[in-house]
Specification:
- There is one protein chain.
- About 25% of the residues lie in helices and about 40% in strands.
- The chain is of the alpha+beta class.
- It starts with a helix and ends with a strand.
Length: about 120
Amino acid sequence: MAERTRLRKRLTAWASSSDQHARDLRREFEESGVVTIATAPDRDPVQLRGTLRTVTLRPRGGVPALEAELYDGSGVLTVLWLGRRRIAGIAPGRVIQVTGRIGRHDGTRIMFNPRYELMP
């Protein structure tokens, strides 16, 4: 019983730290003057800033495609560069700013071939 209580406390502490991290990211990126992923409209030009959580080579229709998951604390956006196997500086944990239009593919919000800027 005591072991369950300790496990529950550890899980709660871990979840709270994840929530705090998300709040910190939202605050940081909102202060930078860009819109958040959660509030960004579809099909309109937007500028977003966030952290890359994953970067994967995932071919689409026989064409190489570099796919990344952008996270800003408010939501997640899939960023896809068609025809690219890798891009220097694009790696998990990197903060980038992307500019483009958000669309939907199979229910997932996605931005194809955005302009990007690596942030310090």
